[in-house]
Design a protein that fits this description.
four-stranded antiparallel beta sheet, elongated, 13 strands, 4 helices, alpha+beta
């Protein structure tokens, strides 16, 4: 049993002990009655303690069916993985980790209450340490609104990448719009620095740590791109020559 469950049974035992003391005080002249009532309480406590693990299994199975019904009703066009189907130690009764089968690396925790109400308790993402080249994939979880089963996962495609030591930049398309994402990466950890998005069939730029990053969408209709730098200067380049590439200038 979990520490919380041990405390739960300890509190019950304390209450029972207090009741037994009261029983012997009230029935001090009728000792047989006191012993009989005490025996009922003790046997009932032991029986409940023995039955409790089976009760957890039974309750969890009922709530698994309830969460299945909830998902089928609210998301009829989706398929989900639900864990655990059968109660397992380490899980809370009525708590389930759920993910859409098309996105197995992210999902939510659903809680089924005693009254059968299903609520979202939290979100989760597999915390495998990504390679430097795969950092951009985390945007599928963090991009836009907080993740939930209702969230539309963005369509993100890597077009180009650039690395210089710990600094990593990606040219992306997010829902068909050009974007640049910048990260720090080392053996000790990694961090998201900035994301900039442009207009559909347009271009996007970021100026950070002395670098200027520019990405021009393949469908950009113009002949040139002109970027206004932080120092007030302008930087221009031939769009046809650099479409679909991540341009980096220092």
């Amino acid at each position: 049993m979990s520490p919380g469950e041990n405390i739960y049974f300890l509190l019950i035992a304390i209450v029972i002990m207090a009741v037994i003391i009261c029983i012997f005080f009230i029935f001090r002249k009728r000792r047989k009655w006191a012993i009989a009532l005490t025996s009922v309480l003790v046997i009932g406590y032991i029986g409940y303690y023995i039955y409790y693990p089976f009760l957890k299994v039974k309750t969890h199975a009922e709530r698994y069916e309830q969460v299945m019904d909830y998902l089928a009703k609210n998301y009829p066009n989706k398929q989900f993985t639900i864990i655990p189907k059968h109660y397992e130690e380490g899980y809370r009764v009525g708590n389930f980790t759920v993910n859409d089968v098309v996105s197995p690396t992210m999902g939510v925790t659903l809680r089924v209450s005693d009254k059968g109400q299903v609520t979202q308790d939290g979100t989760w993402q597999k915390n495998e340490y990504p390679s430097q080249q795969e950092l951009w994939r985390e945007l599928e979880f963090f991009y836009g609104e907080t993740y939930s089963l209702d969230k539309e996962i963005p369509k993100i495609t890597k077009q180009d990448e650039w690395e210089d030591g710990e600094l990593t930049a990606f040219a992306l398309t997010i829902n068909e719009m050009p974007a640049i994402a910048i990260y720090n990466y080392s053996s000790g950890g990694y961090g998201f620095l900035e994301l900039q998005e442009g207009e559909r069939e347009g271009y996007v730029s970021i100026e950070i740590d002395g670098y200027v990053f520019i990405y021009i969408d393949e469908s950009y209709p113009g002949e040139t791109v002109t970027i206004q730098l932080k120092n007030g200067d302008e930087y221009s380049l031939n769009a046809d020559e650099y479409k679909g590439q991540l341009i980096v200038e220092k």
